Amino acid sequence: xxxxxxxxxxxxxxxxxxxxxxxxxxxxxxxxxxxxxxxxxxxxxxxxxxxxxxxxxxxxxxxxxxxxxxxxxxxxxxxxxxxxxxxxxxxxxxxxxxxxxxxxxxxxxxxxxxxxxxxxxxxxxxxxxxxxxxxxxxxxxxxxxxxxxxxxxxxxxxxxxxxxxxxxxxxxxxxxxxxxxxxxxxxxxxxxxxxxxxxxxxxxxxxxxxxxxxxxxxxxxxxxxxxxxxxxxxxxxxxxxxxxxxxxxxxxxxxxxxxxxxxxxxxxxxxxxxxxxxxxxxxxxxxxxxxxxxxxxxxxxxxxxxxxxxxxxxxxx
Length: 317
Description:
CATH class of the largest domain: Alpha Beta
CATH superfamily of the largest domain: Pseudouridine synthase
Oligomer: single chain
Structural class: alpha+beta
CATH architecture of the largest domain: 2-Layer Sandwich
Shape: globular
CATH topology of the largest domain: Pseudouridine synthase
Low-confidence stretches: 1-12
Number of strands: 20
Helix content: 10-25%
């Protein structure tokens, strides 16, 4: 047991708990995603905690938090589609492309609803998007936001992203309109708002942003940090956990025998012998990721290598 010193008082820290699964947190405004992870770690006592998909402090909504063995599956959630609701404030450009930044330019130009609807298809599908300079992207080993805060020049190349859907939901008033977007990995809503405003002959930034879904995780599943705090270290926390396998729903699965599962857990490749399984492996091709299952539980994330699978991440569930 770890003993920590606070002033002249000796305090024993709680032992970390082996908890595995997903908590869907409804992130409050003004809090960083890293701060949410720290809070979840303190409230649950989990030994390992991480989040899948950063939300800016201004944003609220779905933040999937992985505990224990679920941290090994975070990349599959980060890569999944996401849905956002957001409000654009017309007529102002801000340094951060959201309401947290300083105003850097203004205009009296305002778009009509008809003009907005005509422009939306231009930002739908596979598009090139320049990330905000206040982002976590690395430039020569440094975070872009750190360079921007130090008033150093930041040049970010446009990236290809996928916007599945972009809808105008409401004209709030002359200065504000609300939207909903569904997008793939790496898309920035701040950039989407900025670029839409530019196409409409005005300026704009994100005034409010809420993420409503990340892959299979939706706001209907989400709980607040206050609710989690009320549960404390009780068994009721486990009732809020989603299975580790929730993150792997889009990955092909292969059922194993007990001996095959044991072989994978020991880091050894497993030959695929059954005819139906060989047909699946052949269709997927070398390098494909397959979730190996035994007894209804994920055993390992594996990679296809000919007519065998090799363990990539072993899951101890």
